[in-house]
Amino acid sequence: MKPAAWLQKFGSSLERGDIDAAAGMFEPESYWRDLVSFTWNLKTCEGRAEIKAMLAARLADVKPRNFLAKTSEWFTFETALGRGIGHLRLRGKRCWTLLTTLQELKGFEEKRETGLPAAPREPYVLIVGGGQGGIALAARLKRLQVPALVVEKNERAGDSWRTRYKSLCLHDPVWYDHMPYLPFPEHWPVFSPKDRIADWLEMYVKVMEIDYWGSTPCTNARFDEEKNLWEVDVLRRGQPMTLRPTHLVLATGMSGFPSMPRIPGSESFTGAMVHSSEYKDGADWKGKHCVVVGSGTSGHDICADLVEQGAAEVTMIQRAPTIVARSATLMDLAWGPLYSEEALARGITTQIADLTVASVPFKVLPELQRPVYSEMRKRDADLYIGLEKAGFQYTFGEDGSGIHSLYLRRGAGYYIETGASQMIIEGRIKLKSGVSLEALTEKSVTLSDGTELPADLVVLATGYGSMNQWAEQLISKEVADKVGKVWGLGSHTKADPGPWVGELRNMWKPTQQPNLWFHGGNLMQSRHYSLYLALQLKARLEGIPTPVYYVEPVHHLQ
């Protein structure tokens, strides 16, 4: 069956309310991913039974119509309240995957006008965190004329990048990293240095006229259930004040709470011990002995920086196997088909690329990624042979599905090779794998295998805690536990315990705590999903009914 014919038949079934007929047009093993348009949620229905249950609950209100095929995969549609874009994959006469996304609300479309008045003292939406996530959301809300204010503890927009280690550079390509409305200029480097990203974000805040308060840490928040408002305490230029927004968005990032293991003997250590988030510049450690605990992105980057800056000896402590992929190969096999100059030449815009990524249900992503990493293993055999000879424990994930799956499951545990792996192979970065840091002495570290290494600097590239911890610190443990774990899919893999939930926990969608939202992720996710969160907030501002279909129950607290 041709997509246009399928869409016409599907649309007719929905318009006459024939749920059985509509669900019967899907494969027994099928997926309908909806981003706000039907569910006022981010929800993937898996199989006919879940699709029928969703339609039984939502069809009468949604009133979908005008399903129009634009290409063999893409279509547009309308609901009673908005307009959307969708993506369809057929297997024979039936649907395998369906994506429906809300793109705008009727009567409340994005406005071209700029120069709106500054947010009032009581913004409708308060965004805590002024990194790329908070800024992207604020830009969306500005275009929708939703009064919003960003509060950020750092002085300037972009400081969350600006203050990181000197050699930090993005490992994903520029086409993947655009901000909403304002893409990077064509001369921008493919892989952006952190200071250029910082300056771009600072410029973006000014050009988009975002209401942004720097040097304004948030100290406490509490929800008034009777008034349906938040009371949020901040320090504005050192002076305490209380804001009363209706909605509170925590855009504090996945890299918020450093995980700092307690190490016996640390009080006697005369060198420096810092978390990777506090590490600045390898030039400070020229001629010194340095130990870096951790083999993810930060661990590799910091080791390479220390070597390049002339440290006497740099040793990486690898506690567990790590996914490694060459940047060029990843670009060729994974990013390039959607995010590259070649993709643009084929007519794949940023929006189409983002929606294509969104059209792949998380449940089937691993099976689509495994062939990519199988090919990568063959293509870059020299890299993996070299790492193996050096004693580095590499992996392609518990199920062989690589970086993209791992990022969604736990947001860590991988490195995109831009030079550090070659340093390990050449012995310029020393390696101790399959061990952990057991203790510190005055001038050395002791490992779990009994090895003792001299150390002037110990960097703990040991990752970060859940975004849920921000809710506990800023609001209360009760609210944090009510919301539960943030991020992860329930894949039953390391750091992502089941049950399967099908979407990222608590991200960009309603949570168990009324009027509390989480927003963030990488630059691509901040760009794409900020639209859906902004539309949910706009609808609530305008009094549009937003009956949420299925808020996920809490299975894990952190």
Question: What can you see in these coordinates?
Answer:
This protein has 558 residues and is α/β, with parallel strands linked by helices. 31% of the residues lie in helices and 23% in strands. It contains 17 helices and 25 strands. It has a 6-stranded mixed beta sheet with strand order 2-1-6-5-4-3, sandwiched between helices. The chain has a 5-stranded parallel beta sheet with strand order 9-8-7-13-25, with helices on one face. Helix 4 runs parallel beside helix 17, helix 12 (381-390) crosses helix 14 (420-426) and helix 15 (468-474) packs antiparallel against helix 16. The longest helix has 19 residues, at 523-541. The model has no long low-confidence stretch (mean pLDDT 95).
Topology:
Blueprint: H1 3-15, H2 19-23, E1 26-35, E2 42-46, H3 48-62, E3 65-69, E4 74-78, E5 82-91, E6 94-105, E7 125-128, H4 132-143, E8 148-151, H5 159-162, H6 194-207, E9 212-213, E10 218-224, E11 229-236, E12 239-243, E13 247-250, E14 272-275, E15 289-293, H7 297-308, E16 313-318, E17 322-326, H8 327-335, H9 341-345, H10 350-358, H11 365-379, H12 381-390, E18 394-395, H13 402-410, E19 414-417, H14 420-426, E20 430-433, E21 437-440, E22 444-447, E23 452-454, E24 457-460, H15 468-474, H16 477-483, E25 516-518, H17 523-541
Parallel strand pairs: 1-6, 7-8, 7-13, 8-9, 13-25, 14-24, 15-16, 15-24, 16-20, 17-18, 17-19
Antiparallel strand pairs: 1-2, 3-4, 4-5, 5-6, 10-11, 11-12, 21-22, 22-23
Helix pairs in contact: 4-17, 12-14, 15-16
